[in-house]
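hi! just following up on the protien thing from before. the input was this:
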Amino acid sequence: MTTVMIVDNDHTTIKLLSQLLELEGFDVILAEDPEGAMQAARANPSLDVVLIDYHLSDDVKGTQIIEQLRREGFADLPIVVMSGMNVESESLASGADHFLAKPFEPNDLPVILRQAIGE
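and the predicted 3d structure came back as:
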């Protein structure tokens, strides 16, 4: 089973995305902040891909978590950033592998995540 970690501070988004991905056969891990994301990544060696929101709070951007993941040995972990803002260049420069513009079609998400991990 493919394991995805969703990093987002919006509870509604997390709930909807996790339900969608679980229905598609993904095992889902949730994190809302940098500390939770790093703890979950360290605790789950079977983690296959990360889906992270760009804007997590006024003080925290998803790119900060990406950079920390890359520094701490998760160099090959596929990371997909999602955002409604035009931050694709910044996201990719921080170490993300893919960018997903919001809004997106729900059915596109599992396809994009599977492509990110090479399935």
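Helices lie at 11-23, 34-43, 62-71, 88-93, 108-116.
The chain has one domain: 3-116.
cheers
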